[in-house]
Design goal:
about 1000 residues, alpha/beta, Leucine-rich repeat, LRR (right-handed beta-alpha superhelix), 31-stranded mixed sheet, 13 helices, about 15% helix, serine/threonine-protein kinase, EC 2.7.11.1, kinase
């Protein structure tokens, strides 16, 4: 008995020891798995040093590696590189990405359950098929990691996988993946989350059937997949599906009826499609819906479905950018009278041409927290009803008038975000208006007719992070109450009527300053020697003021620096070269001297896309290090630069504007310029010392639309190849690249904007940064083009030594607006096809040796408002008609002694006598003259016969003129569409 008891006690003790030993952690990773990780590391490039900890023996302590506490096996490899949304404009690209190849040695991690390689850049390689061998893998994130090609079907072997993300993000194109077939998706029986946004599914026609077999799937994201959605589904198995995103596929079929059988659905996104049918009333059956996005669609052409009022769980509704749903919101009162009025927390209705006064039913949405109605056409007074739960109110960019309610704090006591910029509101903004808004973090009042009457003793809401007062009457003194805002990140006081010295405290009152814009005031004072203590500062715009002194030292995170149009003097500091995140540098219109530093290659990953040092007193040559892979705009005009165009400019392959005018640059225009800078749109070399021929290769630059070589020593003929410039033959594409960066940044920086709103802003090109500009001589005067620069199409070769005839090929540049060939030695006649340049506004051919008559086809130039043909050898009668009658200045014809007719005093009969009667030289010419005379006689006879009949028969006359109107309209439309080259 005792022996049995002893045996039992020993057995219990053994079990206890085993249990304790199993619960004790095992320190250190397995040697085989450590080697696998090191082999994996060898195939990678790590410019940011993210794998610097991968050196010691214990791989479980390495960054991104996690081991199982009990077994010591590597179970998690997290090398994701995700960028917060509020940084996407700041950096514009991945931050410290891993690059290179994925070594197959990774399969040695046989116990791996979690793998995240997102937001890196693997250079367009295919997703390795061996990733399908990780049998225990539950989580796989390869989003935006630089993969391309067909997604390997071996991923279908991951039967334990619960989470799969192969997507792109909309603001950073990176993956270029395609699903050739989707049947393997049905093997992922454990899958709960699937994100294939921006993966091409155009060839995967069976995607819906494959996904319909997954019993546990709860979220499917298929945005921008180029897919077609089948209208029918035999049996709906999506019993656990809660999130479905089919946005931005431009689906042209009807709205699939099976969608409205997904009773468990909580989030449905159908935005940016083109459904042929309207949203049926069956949408009211989705009673579990919490988020519904119908933005940018045609499905609401017939109005908002009345059944929406039955969605008692709905918290977020987006009806934005529906061009077919516009008008007075008062008509929708019944829709928002149901239980939706009690649940709705977010209502987005932007870019929709809504008009009228704000409807009263908005005041019944008592649970509403966010209301976005910006970019519409609402007029009348500010919102007059209270919404006590409201956190965000954005009614900017409408046409509201009247005053701002004094009791804002009582109407919206929880408000954190308030923006009513770009309206027509009037009056004085006082402390009373902002009293009670203690939680306010964002205040935008820009571009109204408001005066700011806030006293220096006023205590603002101390939580303010963004303050936007662009175009407000804030001055003339600099408001001292700003220094109380210790949390301020965004300070926008441009064009605010400030005429004062910038106080010393401005650069020290808030350590959180990220974005400062004080442009277009009359602020005086010196820039501080250093702003390096503001480590978060990344946007500075002080342009258009009276700042003096030298350029400050800026913090390492600076991205945008605009100091143009001040009185800043001295040298350009080399410290600017070491700002590795610098994207835009504008120091134009100052008093900078000496040479441009040649140190711009110190940045490891140069991001500079704008470099503007124009209108200074800089000397020396163009730096050889100035080019970066991203440089798009290079402005060095109006300085004292010398030397030749450096060969290093060939490396500026992204360059769109090269403006080196008004310097002392010599040599010739190199042919490599046209062979290397294939994206060039604006080429300005005006007023330099260039000689030699114009390279014919310029005609190969398909995007070139502004050429300015005036005031040089160029010789030879005008290349006929310039007639190949495609950008001058077709209507220009308009892109907006403005400085309304703040309107975007401050909204995303503090969490008051969602990804869809950012997508709207990106798609509308409201980008942070720089508005390109260029000076051109147009219609005899210097004009600066900035906002309208994308519309400018111009050739100016004036004041050179060019010879030969005007190439007829130039007459096929249908959208040319300005042609200046004056001050050369051009001979021959003005091309007869000059009348084909129907968009021409300014034509200067003066001071050449042109001869012959002015082509009568030029009567067709209905946009022509500036013409100069003076000092040539032109002869004959000035055409009478069209714009020639609207140009009564005789000086535009001076120096052509054989010209006659209006507006000259020369009588054409006198000119004929002076030049004597010219007789035909041969029989062929006699025959031609007889032919033209017979045509004229026949025309006159036919003309009077036709008009006689039309005058006698009114019905015939009415029918004839209807036909002529139609013919003229059709011909005009034909010419307008750029078909003049076939005339």
């Amino acid at each position: 008995m005792a022996a049995k008891l002893t045996e039992a006690l020993l057995l219990c003790l053994l079990c206890f020891i085993l249990c304790v030993s199993n619960s004790l952690p095992i320190y250190g990773c397995k040697e085989g798995e450590r080697k696998a990780l090191l082999n994996f590391k060898e195939g990678l490039k790590d410019p940011g040093g993210r794998l610097s900890s991968w050196i010691d023996q214990d791989c479980c302590s390495w960054r991104g590696v996690q081991c199982d506490d009990q077994t010591g096996h590597v179970v998690q490899l997290d090398l994701g590189n995700k960028i917060p949304l509020h940084n996407m404009f700041q950096y514009g690209q991945r931050f410290e990405p891993l690059e290179g190849e994925i070594n197959p040695a990774l399969v040695g991690l046989k116990h791996l359950q979690y793998l995240d390689l997102s937001m890196n850049f693997f250079g367009g390689i295919q997703i390795p098929a061996f990733l399908g061998s990780f049998q225990k893998l539950r989580y796989l994130d390869l989003s935006c990691a630089g993969f391309s090609g067909v997604v390997p079907h071996q991923l279908g072997n991951l039967s334990s996988l619960q989470y799969l993300d192969l997507s792109n993000v909309f603001y950073l194109p990176c993956n270029h993946l395609q699903l050739a077939r989707s049947h393997w998706l049905s093997n992922l029986s454990s899958l709960q989350y699937l994100n294939l946004n921006f993966v091409d599914l155009s060839k995967a026609s069976d995607w819906l059937e494959s996904l319909n077999t997954l019993p546990l799937i709860s979220e499917i994201n298929l945005s921008n997949c180029t897919l077609e959605v089948p209208l029918s589904l035999a049996h709906v198995n999506f019993t656990k599906l809660k999130v479905l995103d089919l946005s931005s596929n431009y689906i042209h079929s009807g709205v699939p009826p099976w969608l409205f059988k997904l009773r468990s659905l909580e989030n449905l996104d159908l935005s940016a499609n083109a459904f042929k049918e309207l949203i049926p009333s069956a949408i009211g059956n989705l009673t579990s819906l919490r988020v519904l996005n119908l933005a940018n669609n045609r499905v609401l052409e017939g109005g908002v479905p009345l059944s929406l009022k039955n969605l008692c769980m709905l918290k977020s509704l987006d009806l934005s950018e529906n061009k077919y749903l516009h008008g007075d919101l008062n008509e929708l009162e019944e829709v928002f009278s149901g239980c939706i009025k009690d649940s709705l927390e977010t209502l987005n209705w932007i870019y929709s041409e809504l008009k009228g006064h704000f409807p009263n039913w908005l005041g019944r949405l008592k649970s509403l927290k966010m209301l976005n109605l910006y970019y519409n056409s609402f007029y009348g007074p500010f919102l007059q009803f209270g919404l006590h739960s409201l956190i965000k109110l954005d009614i900017s960019r409408n046409t509201l008038n009247g005053s701002v309610p004094v009791n804002l704090g009582q109407l919206y006591p929880k408000l954190e975000f308030l923006d009513f910029a770009y309206n027509n509101l009037t009056g004085v903004l006082t402390e009373a208006h902002l009293a009670g808004l203690a939680k306010l973090q964002h205040l935008g009042i820009s571009a109204n007719e408001l005066s700011v009457g806030l006293r220096s003793s006023w205590v603002p809401p101390l939580g303010l992070k963004a303050l936007l007062m662009f175009g407000s009457k804030l001055g003339p003194g600099f408001p001292s109450w700003i220094q109380k805002l210790e949390n301020l990140s965004v300070a926008e006081f441009s064009n605010a009527g400030i005429s004062d010295t910038l106080p010393d405290w401005f650069w020290n009152f808030s350590k959180n300053l990220q974005l400062v814009r004080l442009s277009n005031n009359d602020i005086k004072g010196k820039l501080p020697a250093s702003l390096e203590h503001l480590s978060g500062l990344w946007y500075v715009d002080l342009s258009g003021n009276s700042f003096e002194g030298s350029v400050s030292q800026f913090p390492a995170n600076l991205v945008y620096l605009f100091l143009s149009s001040n009185k800043i003097a001295g040298r350009i500091p080399e410290t600017l070269c070491y700002l590795k995140k610098l994207a835009a540098l504008d120091l134009s219109k100052n008093q900078l001297i000496s040479e441009i530093p040649d140190c711009w290659n110190h940045s490891v990953q140069p991001k500079l896309f704008t470099f503007d040092l124009s209108d200074n007193q800089l000397s020396g040559g163009i730096p050889t290090t100035i080019c970066s892979p991203s440089l798009a705009y290079l402005h060095l005009s109006n300085n004292n630069l010398s030397g030749e165009l450096p060969l290093s400019l060939r490396n500026c392959r992204a360059l769109m504007t090269l403006d080196l005018g008004q310097n002392k640059i010599g040599g010739s225009i190199p042919t490599w310029l046209a062979n290397s800078l294939l994206n060039l749109e604006v080429l300005g070399l005006r007023n330099n010392m260039l000689a030699g021929d114009i390279p014919p290769e310029l005609g190969n630059l398909t995007g070139l639309r502004v050429i300015d070589f005036a005031y040089n020593y160029l010789s030879g003929t005008i290349p006929y190849s310039l007639g190949n410039l495609r950008a001058m033959k077709f209507a220009p594409k308009i892109f907006y690249n403005t400085k309304v960066a703040l309107e975007i940044y401050d909204k995303i920086a503090f969490g008051y904007i969602d990804s869809m709103e950012i997508l709207y802003m990106v798609s509308n090109k409201l980008l942070i940064g720089y508005m390109d500009n260029v000076n051109v001589n147009l219609k005899g005067r210097d004009v600066q083009y900035d906002k309208l620069l994308p519309l400018l199409i111009s050739i100016d070769l004036s004041r050179n030594e060019l010879s030969g005839e005007i190439p007829e090929e130039l007459m096929y540049l249908s959208y040319l607006q300005n042609l200046d060939l004056s001050g050369n030695h051009l001979t021959g006649r003005i091309p007869e096809k000059m009348g084909m340049l129907l968009k021409l506004e300014s034509l200067d051919l003066s001071n050449n040796d042109l001869s012959g008559a002015i082509p009568t086809t030029m009567i067709m130039l209905s946009f022509l408002s500036h013409l100069n043909l003076s000092y040539n050898n032109l002869s004959g009668r000035i055409p009478q008609g069209g714009q020639f009658l609207a140009l009564p200045d005789p000086s535009i014809y001076f120096g052509n002694y054989a010209l006659c007719g209006f507006p000259l005093d020369n009588n054409c009969e006198d000119i004929d006598e002076q030049t004597s009667v010219r007789y035909p030289k041969d029989e062929d010419e006699v025959e031609k003259i007889g032919f033209y005379v017979s045509i004229a006689l026949g025309y006159n006879l036919g003309f009077w016969v036709l008009w006689g009949v039309l005058l006698l028969n009114k019905k015939w006359g009415y029918a004839y003129f209807q036909f002529v109107d139609y013919l003229l309209f059709a011909t005009g439309d034909w010419l307008w569409k750029g078909k003049t080259d076939t005339l």
